[in-house]
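Weekly puzzle thread! Below is a chain. First person to post its structure in token form gets bragging rights.
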Amino acid sequence: MAENKRKSQTLLNGALILSISTLIVKVIGVIYKIPLSNMIGTVGRGYFDSAYSLYVPIYTISMAGLPVAVSKMVSQQLALGRYRDVRLIHRVAKRLFLIMGITGTLLMLLLAYPYALSAKNLNVIPAILVTTPAIFFCCIMSSYRGYYNGLRNMNPTAVSQVFEAAGKLVFGLLCARFVISYGYSRFEAGLTVYGQTVSSESEALSAIYPYAAAAAAAGVTLGTVVGMIYLLILHRIKGDKITKTELASSPKPASSGNVAKKLIVFAIPVVASSLVFSITNLIDSVTIQNRLEYMIANNMDYVRSIYAEELAGVLDADVKNFLYGAYSLSLDFKNLIPSITMPLGISAIPTLSAAWAVKNKRQIKVSIESVLRVTMLIAMPCGIGMGVLSQPILAVFYGSGNSAAGISIAAPVMAVYGYSIALMSLSQPMTNMLQALDMAKIPLVSLTIGAIAKVVSNYILVAIPSINVNGAVIGTIICYLLIVVINFFALVYKSRVRINLVSVAVKPIFCGILCGAAAYTSFGLLNRFVPEFQLAGHSVKNIFALAVAICMGGLVYLISMLLVKGIAKDDIVMLPKGEKIAKILAKYGFIE
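Winning reply:
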């Protein structure tokens, strides 16, 4: 049959493909950010992340608005056998995305100076300008990603994400290395450094950092170009697998205007939700930096006394960017786990939308519970492990470069984020499921409430000298707690599904605590009793202890989850070769 030729993927199968690609992307991201942070230092990371905070809201709109609408509408029309409508949706979407890409690019250009001025950080402008074209290329990519997701084929999205990340890695590091080398060579020759007269290495680095961050940001733009080219070539060669027979038997499609209207109407609350959260992150960035500057201006001596070792050699003018850059180091890992669970929500959109269209209550229940349970299964051990091992993780990744001084500031922040990571991981999949069930307005409400709470908390807490950047963590936790609680009750009410909380939450939390205890104990014992040893001239004791601790924590978690029967048969069956795996686990009594 034609449907078999298309090889539509199950919810968890599609999510698995996206999760694997996301994991690869994150590994590439780590490979990118570790040498990048070591090259441009904590101050440079502050510029890079500040520019990224403006880019992300517009990028998120292009990735989470119309793509969700396209995916939902395509999956619904596919379930109803309206193949001509499926093709029409894609054609209309491409035109809408083209308009959106041009608009977004112009918007980012217009906001560059006001944003930098509001953040009191004009040095971030070069990085913003270099990143701006990425919005256009991202929008072109999104039209194809949303279409293939709706066809329940996650492969094109997954592969394009990897190509995009690889492009960012290669071009970003090469450009940053060139800019730093050029600037430093001018300093050594006694010349001006990027238009500034400098008399010391610290002043030279301060002049280099804004342009090094901009060079790194060029990798973001060039990465989107690589990903876009891949999708254009793929679609030209392989198409969408809809056959001529299916098109001939399909009813007459709706008008282009009607399709565009439906896409926009559905996308508006989705875009609004993304906009609220992304703008909150933007305001978050501005607020943190402004409140840090206010706090430092009135308490410089106190700040230097509590961070005496960390701020040694840092100019007074760079203290704010140093603290913000140290905070940003923790964000590299805070966003890792939610990005791995996010594909569960993306994969749920076409599956739940199709089930909702044909009123398949059994599939609706299985899909919702599977998404929530698998999210918790992933988030709990990873989050608790990240919390108990925050210091050694940061030491392994950033302990030998220019960012090493910020580790002691970033570690407590990362630990708290780790312990609360389940809230952040649940947020996006819940939002996607509500969107699939025609409740896109609920996430808008919950995000708005959470966002307001976050901004208010940041404004108050970051300005307290003894709390400083740690106040941003408290605001984030309050924000996600409100979002998850509101979304959960709305999801249960709309779907009429009774969630098995023992299976979804209690078992993963219990086993996650055991995992954390095993990892913490293993690292402590190994770090204390294993002698220091060298490999190729480098100390690897900490790396060895960390690797063993992670393995021990993972092993304890897996064994405990099997013993308490924390893995459901419905989840296993939706995986590749799931029936065979389920039979083996059932044979030994590990699933019911």
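Puzzle host: Confirmed. Bonus trivia for everyone else. The chain has two domains: 16-499, 500-592.
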